[in-house]
Amino acid sequence: MGIDEFAFRRGATYGTALIGVEARRPIDLLPDRSADTVVAWLADHVEIKVICRVRCSAFSRAAARAALDAIEVAVRWHLLHSLARAVARTARQHRVCLRAPGPNYSTRS
After folding, report:
1. Starting at the edge strand that comes first in sequence, how are the strands of the sheet with 2-9 ordered?
2. Is residue 40 part of a domain?
3. What is the rounded CA–CA span in Å between residue 54 and residue 60?
4. Do the Cβ atoms of 90 and 98 come closer than 8 Å?
């Protein structure tokens, strides 16, 4: 099952979307993104074995409280996005080093 937040009204009201990963279809929409709401839903769905979730701490707390046997998996997009930002930040910090001429490793004698 995938779990993510969505906006009923951007900047004001958010909910939780529960997605069937295999069917690629919504399972349920919850009225908010609180851990207690997700815990209540998970308590009624003990068959959930894998939770693919964003890094929202409320979702992590909910899984830890109500889906003790479920495996938690990070959403691939968020992992790649975080990696790309870290690489870009590191490249910016070391741009002088990257532009500096390096040693000559010529194999000619």
Report:
1. 25-30, 13-20, 2-9, 50-53, 71-74
2. yes
3. 9
4. no
